[in-house]
Design goal:
By secondary structure, this protein is mostly helical. It is built from 10 helices and 2 strands, in the order ααββαααααααα. Helices cover 57% and strands 2% of the residues. The mean pLDDT is 85.
Amino acid sequence: MNDLISRKYQMKLVKSVHDAIWEEYKSYKEVGIYIDKWYESDQWNNNWENFHIYLKDSGDIDLLRTLHSMSGSDLLKVAIEMGVDTPDFIPMIPTFKNVLKSDFKTAYDTFTKAFKQIETDPSLAVGLANSALESIIKEILKDERINSKVKGNETLYKLTSIILKEFNILDNNHPIEIKTIGSSLLSISQSIEKLRSEKTDFHGKTKDDYLINDTVFTYFVINSVTTVGLFLNSYFKTKFPQPTKIDNEHDDLPF
């Protein structure tokens, strides 16, 4: 992971993480305690430490220098835990989170949990991302203008099939390229669902079963969820715009 995080990006990320930590913890004491929870050392291994905690002349932590001493992967973990957007790794996160927060509260809560688990529990993050996308589609299909209704126990693959049919994405009147992209959306949902069912702890695994534990692939899955989710929501709002609210302010006038 360290090799994937450029030095230039780390410089930008440090500033954002620095500000987020001070926003969360208001005193040097609390900031120091928080950073200390990330610190590891081994005095028997040439005094190895995963990063160095720098102090000011006053004895208080120098947070900026300390963060700069962290590896790219550790810095990214802190950023995710603090809720700092990481657009170089999940480009659409800020947009996606804003859309979810305003339109899909349940999906927002689930996706936020998934985002925070990417580095610490990749398997759980994939499962939660799957659930977030399910929530988005279910919420869209609740609209009374949509014919297909769900029972509540449909899988992500089934839900995606239903909504693509409702949106006529796979209609024969569309260019073959559009139909191909539509089929790809279905394949993406099916693959995410299979990863959740077969490559995570969600359905129980033995020691010989493969579990997804590489964060690179987890970022790939999360990015796929944001892409599909944003497209479906955008298409829904285009094809099923909310009716204009009529101003009844003057209904009581006699003319």
